[in-house]
Amino acid sequence: MARLGVNIDHIATLRQARGGVEPDPVAAAVLVELAGADGIVVHLREDRRHIKDRDLHLLRETVRTKLDLEMAPAEEIVKIALDVKPHMVTLVPERREELTTEGGLEVAGNRESLHGTIALLHDAGIAVSLFIAPDLNQVKAAHRVSADYVEIHTGRYVNAKRLIEQDAEFEAIRQSAKLAYKLGMGVNAGHGLNYRNIKRLLPIQEIVEYNIGHSIVSRAVMTGLQQAVREMKDLLNKG
Ligand code: PXP
Q1: Which long-range contacts (C-beta less than 8 Å, at least 24 apart) are formed by 170-178?
Q2: Could you tell me the domains of the chain?
Q3: Which residues are part of the catalytic machinery?
Q4: Ligand 1 within 6 A of 43 CB?
Q5: How many angstroms does the Cα of residue 5 sit away from the middle of ligand 1?
């Protein structure tokens, strides 16, 4: 049975829409854990568009399962990770203009600098995962730079328009997961997964954890909306 890491960035996105304090991702993390999630995932972006340093520090104190910090291998953010010491760091590529993490890390072409960053994180006792495209060369490169885990980017699989494309992407994920497992790395997967498209991946035994954010937060809005309206209506009725 695979584990579930819940990415709560979009709780913070909603808070930032008003620049206030609600909804608080720290409070959301408690509820996510109470519902059975195996880990909390947050992406501290260089532009701090959703998760803030304050959130990360508080989550480090409050998360009872596992805190996975997604981050670019950028000097400023690495320093923060070394200070906060989450249980795990997932290194991702980051572009300011993107809406979400678009591609995987180019590990093969950046072996030297990634090796250095991973060594620093390892010295601080932090496990390191690399977010990579389902590509055997990237898997091999991740192994060479001493990554503990890879997280396979499922974006191309979920965005495939035609079945033939989806089949090819599924096969690439399966082969990448098998190779990473064989090389001794833990295998996670994520990006764009929802209540439908995840089903096909579940038989891939080598994938031990799925990191999912947008579809869960979207569903929470829909499943919670009626109760929220009822509560306000009750209040008005009492007045
Ligand atoms: N894993 C990684 C490395 C990501 O960058 C993201 C998006 O922040 C996710 C998982 C979650 O993706 P989604 O929000 O589409 O479920």
Answers
A1: 170/200, 170/201, 172/134, 172/135, 173/134, 173/201, 173/204, 174/204, 175/134, 175/136, 176/132, 176/134, 176/135, 176/136, 176/138, 176/139, 176/150, 176/152, 177/134, 177/152, 177/204, 177/206, 177/207, 178/206
A2: 3-238 (3.20.20.70)
A3: 43, 70, 191
A4: yes
A5: 10
Whether pTM > 0.90 for this model: the answer is yes
Q: Does 211 sit in the ligand 1 pocket, CB within 6 Å?
A: yes
Distance (angstroms) between ligand 1 centre and the Cα of 192 equals 7
Mutate to test the pocket of ligand 1, among 71, 100, 138 (most ligand atoms within 8 A of CB): 100
In tens, the pLDDT along 100-125 reads 777 899 999 999 999 999 999 999 99
pLDDT confidence bin for 94, thresholds 50/70/90? confident
Query: What radius of gyration do the chain's Cα atoms show?
Result: 18
Give the dihedral sign, CA 10/92/103/134: negative
For residue 95, what pLDDT band results from cuts at 50, 70 and 90?
Answer: confident
Do 41 and 70 touch, CB atoms closer than 8 A?
Answer: yes
Integer distance in angstroms from the first to the last C-alpha of the chain?
49
